[in-house]
Amino acid sequence: xxxxxxxxxxxxxxxxxxxxxxxxxxxxxxxxxxxxxxxxxxxxxxxxxxxxxxxxxxxxxxxxxxxxxxxxxxxxxxxxxxxxxxxxxxxxxxxxxxxxxxxxxxxxxxxxxxxxxxxxxxxxxxxxxxxxxxxxxxxxxxxxxxxxxxxxxxxxxxxxxxxxxxxxxxxxxxxxxxxxxxxxxxxxxxxxxxxxxxxxxxxxxxxxxxxxxxxxxxxxxxxxxxxxxxxxxxxxxxxxxxxxxxxxxxxxxxxxxxxxxxxxxxxxxxxxxxxxxxxxxxxxxxxxxxxxxxxxxxxxxxxxxxxxxxxxxxxxxxxxxxxxxxxxxxxxxxxxxxxxxxxxxxxxxxxxxxxxxxxxxxxxxxxxxxxxxxxxxxxxxxxxxxxxxxxxxxxxxxxxxxxxxxxxxxxxxxxxxxxxxxxxxxxxxxxxxxxxxxxxxxxxxxxxxxxxxxxxxxxxxxxxxxxxxxxxxxxxxxxxxxxxxxxxxxxxxxxxxxxxxxxxxxxxxxxxxxxxxxxxxx
Length: 522
Fold this sequence. Notes:
Enzyme class: oxidoreductase
Strand order of the largest sheet: 14-15-16-13-12-18-19
EC number: 1.2.1.88
CATH superfamily of the largest domain: Aldehyde Dehydrogenase, Chain A, domain 1
Radius of gyration: 24 Å
Structural class: alpha/beta
Family: Belongs to the aldehyde dehydrogenase family.
Largest sheet: 7 strands, mixed
Shape: globular
Strand content: 15-25%
Pfam family, one: Aldedh
C-alpha cells in the first residue's frame, strides 16, 4: 500500500484503493454461508452450538455461521493459554517481537479482505474499515518496537552500599499469565488486535472473545496469528454471548488479567470481579464516552462544521469517541448551524459496500430501535430537531438498519445530555461565557475525548481545564475522533477508563506486567 492510510488521511484516497477493496469484497461474498469455528490450543474447535450472522447492510444476506462458545469452550481455551504460558514467557524478547512483526506483515497483505469483512459485519464504510484494519497492523509493529526499545523493562539498579559485599540489584517486569481480551463491536479488529499484541509481546498468553455482532473479524485475527506461527495455545479465539462466555472468562480461576472495551455497567462489573477473589487481578477497562466540543466566537466555522460532522456521524456515531455534546457561542451559533445542516444534507446514506455511501447502517435491530426511542425522547423533552430523526424504510434501505443523522438543539435539563446513545445524534446548546461552556463540558461522569474550535490563544485554556484523556483543537478531520497509534495516545479519564493510561502510549505496555525486584549477593 503506497498510500499511507490513517483516520486523518482517508478523505482523498487513490483510485487503486477502491479497486482492491471491491475485489476483496467480491472474494468474501463468494464465501457467504460458510462455518467459521473457534480456534483453541492451536487448532480449530467445533462448538456445541452455532449462530447465524446477517449483515446490517441487508438482513436478507447471511454472512456465515459462527460459534457460540459455552463454559466448556472457555475452560479449554483458558487451560490451553495457561499451559502455553511458561514457554512463551521464557522466549527471548526479540523472538516474541519478531512474531508480532510477522503477524503485522500478514495483516498488511490481507488488509483489504479484513476491511471488507468489517464493512459486511459492522456496516462501516470502506474508508473506516480500511482505517481500522491498517490501525491494527500499526499496533502490532508499534508494540513490538516499543517493548524492544525499552529492553523488556529490565533495568539494573545500584548495588547495595555495603562495604566488603557485592549485592547486585535489578528491577524486572514480568508477565501475569493467561490474559483475557474482550472486544467491542464497533472496532472489533483494532480493539482486539491492539490489546492482544500488547499482551503477547509482554509475555502473556491470550484468550480473546469477540463481540456477539462481530465474530468474523475475530476469526480473521485468529487466522493471521495462526499463519504467523505463534506457538500452540499462546492465542485462542472464542465467540459467543457475553452473558455466557464473557462471564465464564471473568470467573475462571486461570484468568490472570483482562482488557475490556465496552459499556460502563459491564466494565464496572468486571472491575469488581477482578478486584475480588483471593487477590486483586488487573483489569484494563475502556468504558465509553459522552464527548463534548466547544466552539467559541473566534472559531473557523468551516473547519468546525467539517470536524463536527465527521466526528458526530462517522460510523453512525457508534464510536466511544464520537461527538455527542456541542456547546456553541451564541454569536456564531446560527452561522455554525447553517454550515452543519449543509454538511448533514451532503451525507450519502446507504449500502456501505458502495463507494458513494459515507454513512451505512447502525449495527443491529436494538440500535435501530434505540434511535427511534431517543428521537421520541428528544421531541418529548422540548428539543428542536434541526436535522434528521427518521428511520429509512424505503426501497433497499428497508432491509437494513438505516437512520438519518440528527442535530438537535436542547435545553440543558434534557436527560439525554447525560446518556451515551452510541448513535448519529448530536445535541447543541448556546452559551454566552466560555467558563460556563467548560462547566457544561465537564459535567459528566465520563472523560474520554473532547474537541475545541477557537483562536490559537484560547487553546491552552481549553487544554488546561477540560477533563478528558484525548483532546483535539481546531481539527477538521474530526472534532473528537481519529486517534492513531504513534500519533495520539487514546485513553479516558473518570468513568471512561480504569487506569489513567492510554492505548499506544509511553505507559501502556507496563500494565500487562508486574514488577519484581531482584537482589543477588555474590
